[in-house]
Amino acid sequence: MYMVTSKDGTQIAYDQSGQGPALILVGGAFSYRKFPGTVKLASLLSERFTVYNYDRRGRGESGDKQPYAIEREIEDLQALIDEAGGSAYVWGLSSGAVLALQAAASGANITKLALHEPPFIVDAEDRQPPKDFFKQVTELIADNRRAEAIKYFMTKGMGAPSFVVWIMRLMPGVWSNLTAVAHTLPYDAALLEGFRGGKPLPAHTWSAVQMPTLVLEGTESPASMRRAAQALVKALPRSQLKSKKGLGHTKKLDAKIISSELATFFMG
Question: Rounded distance, CA 4 to CA 12, Å?
């Protein structure tokens, strides 16, 4: 494990493996650098890249200096990019893809960008979270009601059936890991605020994202997620869409398929 200091003094923990061009992995909600799927992905990618797999602030062994702001998370990613030599490839998953996209728009030196199923909702017919979703998640965490926050985030935010949460509660290792990072759910909710209302993506929001960008979607993923990926490609100046079975992330990451597509894109 290594540490890098972000602009506000927060210590960010990361693992580094492999040799080659720098590639930073940005996890989504509930993710952390020891998440099994991410560890496997990092291992496969390290055959061609120097992989930086980090704990977003508040997770794992990273610090969590308050107050939280999206800008601070962007600075965390920039600190990793600086540590990697000043530029890097970046892959972001789900809300981590939104963070990576925001960082790219803010001027982070990202050579190529891969955005894996950012959970936007762009169609009015698709299921949407409650309008006060961010507020509710924040209040549950402020009251230290972590179990309720996890259930609310998964069912109202991610659309998971209630029985899935019930099953997870019966899996001690899984549930304890979810509980350990539950206090960061407001951070993910903040990243998605304004992009899940069933409206088209705002025009020109990411016009500054000029690096080559790959948007990944699984053909097995919910239709709403696929529509979001397709809409994002239209909104980004230099982007391409990759649709393939095994790229969906709502059940289990297929690290082999993902690593193959990323290697093709980043090394192409």
Answer: 5
